[in-house]
Design a protein that fits this description.
Strand content: 5-15%
Mean pLDDT: 89
Shape: extended
Number of domains: 2
Bound molecules: protoporphyrin IX containing FE
Number of strands: 4
Distance between the termini: 64 Å
Radius of gyration: 28 Å
């Protein structure tokens, strides 16, 4: 987000030197975090593979089981059809599933298809889970690509205050990337929670059994209140945030910690000898 805002200022020729520096600081942090995100995402996928196989099957819109010891295709795009228990159409990458899950061509464990379970024991809305996973991981790889491009631009010296404003497409891509992290977070949450259904605690407690006994009207009231309060907060943040951004930073302000004047006028302490009688000082 901060990277996108910095890019917006530079593209609009405002405070280029200041925001070129801010973009470089964001970039340094993002270079460390972006590959880590993909690695942690991969570890999460391994956990899902071993402990929540119905979620993995839904993430991959996989209806049929791929046995161990064989390569399996990875689905790039598909149109899942839950009533027909198949995908209406699908684009797959041959033999890629083993590489994605285990970094090797053949699976060491089977990847179970959704048909292995009764419909009541597997998640619904397979399409939502499947595309949420692709949106999240797609954003992860897009951001990694943007980091590589940014590193290249940095090494070529194109991120200097004099040159950065000329990199129009580079800056536009950073602006485009500003909300992507939030979209990936929401998609990840959908994968995790919708993908876990019909369980609250996988294989142990069903969501139907864990559901609150509160009347639906009470839940609707608190949900509506939350929705209203958070909508007000969201709109206020957009309003005040955009006002602050349009106004721009005040570069006249002293750098915090480097001001010459102390915040409160003070004088050095003076020594006052104790003049009370010796007995009273005991
Ligand atoms: C290649 C990149 C990525 C892969 C392979 C990946 C993989 C996964 C998987 C498998 C899950 C489900 C975990 C579970 O249900 O136990 C998950 C959840 C999640 N992911 Fe990703 N992810 C990637 C990128 C991202 C990015 C870029 C973000 C955010 C900027 C993100 C944020 C999340 C969040 C917030 C969750 C939910 C965590 C929770 O509810 O505790 N992921 N991810």
């Amino acid at each position: 987000m901060i990277g996108g805002i910095s890019a917006w200022y530079i593209l609009n020729n405002r405070h280029e030197a200041f925001f070129a520096r801010s973009l470089r600081i964001v970039l340094a942090a993002a270079i460390a975090v972006t590959p880590l995100q993909i690695y942690i995402g991969h570890l999460s996928a391994e956990q899902v593979y071993h402990y929540q196989p119905t979620k993995l099957a839904a993430m991959e819109a996989k209806w049929e089981t791929s046995p161990a010891g064989q390569p399996a295709d990875w689905s790039l795009l598909a149109l899942p059809d839950e009533s027909g228990e198949k995908n209406k159409w699908e684009i797959t990458i041959p033999n890629a599933l083993g590489y994605i899950l285990e970094f090797k061509p053949k699976l060491s464990e089977p990847v179970l298809g959704l048909k292995e379970w009764q419909p009541s024991d597997r998640p619904r809305m397979v399409g939502l889970i499947y595309y949420s996973f692709r949106i999240m991981s797609g954003i992860g790889f897009f951001l990694a690509g943007l980091m590589l491009w940014s590193i290249l631009q940095w090494l070529l010296g194109n991120l200097s205050p004099e040159k950065i404003a000329q990199q129009k497409w580079f800056l536009r891509t950073w602006i485009f990337a500003a909300p992507l992290g939030y979209i990936a977070v929401e998609s990840g949450w959908i994968v995790r929670c919708v993908g876990r259904q019909p369980w609250t605690l996988y294989g142990q407690i069903r969501t139907a059994d864990a559901a609150s006994q509160l009347p639906a009207s009470n839940v609707l009231t608190s949900l509506t209140l939350f929705a209203v309060v958070y909508s007000i907060l969201f709109v206020s943040t957009l309003y005040f945030g955009s006002r602050i951004i349009r106004h721009g930073p005040n570069l006249e302000l002293p750098v915090p910690g480097l001001e010459n004047q102390p915040a409160i006028e003070t004088e050095p302490a003076t020594f006052v000898p104790n003049q009370r009688p010796v007995e009273a000082q005991q």
